[in-house]
Amino acid sequence: MGxxxxxxxxxxxxxxxxxxxxxxxxxYVGQIKAVLASEAPGLAVIDLLHAVPDFNAHAGALLLDAxxxxxxxxxxxxxxxxxxxxxxxxxxxxEADGRWYVGPDNGLLSIxxxxxxxxxxxxIHWRPERLSVSFHGRDLFAPIAGWIxxxxxPADKLTLVAEPGIQFDAADLxxxxxxxxxxxxxxxxxxxxxxxxxxxxxNGKRLPWRRVYAEAGKGEAFWYVNSSGLIEIAVNRGNAAGxxxxxxxxxxxxxxxxxxxxx
Length: 263
What we know:
The protein has a seven-stranded mixed β-sheet, sandwiched between helices. Strands 8-9-13-12 form a four-stranded antiparallel β-sheet. The protein is elongated, with a radius of gyration of 20 Å. It folds into two domains: 3-161, S-adenosyl-l-methionine hydroxide adenosyltransferase, N-terminal (Rossmann fold), CATH 3.40.50.10790; 173-261, Elongation Factor Tu (Ef-tu), domain 3 (Beta Barrel). It is built from five helices and 15 strands. By secondary structure, it is an alpha+beta fold.
């Protein structure tokens, strides 16, 4: 660790990872990538997710924690789910267990910070000469992320702080966070809280556990622990969201036959 919380060069990252609610049909992702290409030429840029539920920083925070764990230490995540842009919320850099996160201080980065074994946070006090009031992802977050990824930690543009200013509860959330294009519904409950005997209830219907899709009957709805470690609701060769009428935010309940409600 250098002075004023400046990281040593050996801890700096090797790839940029994008995590936003921008979608693919608008110019925003391309505009961010243009900045990253300028500030961190030659580095890999990974499109992790551009379909975080719109404006939903809490769902985004839980998804970010689950998805980022498969990336190597040193990766830098540019995270934008920012309905409060231009309204006075702070901007952050967070280092959590060796991975880097740049984005708004609206809770989006708080769960990776709270669940990490070690973490540090900085407020971005720098403001560029060109700063759109509605597009901090391009004008503020992307340059900072690019500089960190290129090995130039911008200590003169950051102020070390104790924690993110806005923090969500880091506990598991018994709601649907995300629905993929297959209609599978990801929940905010990590798989370690349940076992094979547990049943999950959503919209009044109780679903059994299956280890993998192939162990469910064709058209059967079930729950399992997905590859990101979250409990997911699925239908074998079908669309769970359509069959069960699911949407982001729906409450779920987890039951153990021996102990009753788990979550």
